[in-house]
Amino acid sequence: MAMFRDCDLVLVEGHLAGRAIKIEVWRDATARPPLADNDRSILAVVTDDVVSSRVPVWSRRDVGALADRIANLAGQPCPQMTELRSAHSESAIHTI
């Protein structure tokens, strides 16, 4: 797609049928198990609820670490988040 030609990373919500790396954002309130349990294209679950999964479970609260992990999955380093995390408090990172 021409509009994404200069992008290193594009985040898309809800495109389950796509052939891309997927990360599931999951909440216990759904009363269903994570889709990652049966979908091999989902490589991680993001939640602050307690869940057992076949893939790594990442905290929603640690935005800097989450950005680093997403960038690593995409094969891109994320030095800006590392610098930002060391320069600001955690509450400042959440406002980005």
A few lines on this structure:
It contains 3 helices and 3 strands, in the order βββααα. The chain is of the alpha/beta class and 96 residues long.
Q: What descriptive keywords fit this protein?
A:
alpha/beta, 26% helix, globular, single chain, 96 residues, disordered C terminus, 11% strand
Topology (elements, then pairings):
Layout (H helix, E strand, L loop, with lengths): L21 E4 L16 E5 L10 E2 L4 H11 L5 H9 L2 H5 L2
Parallel strand pairs: 1-2, 2-3
Descriptive notes:
This protein has 96 residues and is an alpha/beta fold. The chain has two domains: 42 residues, no CATH class; 36 residues, no CATH class. Helices cover 26% and strands 11% of the residues. The chain is built from three helices and three strands. The protein has a three-stranded parallel β-sheet, with no helix packed on it. The C terminus is likely disordered.
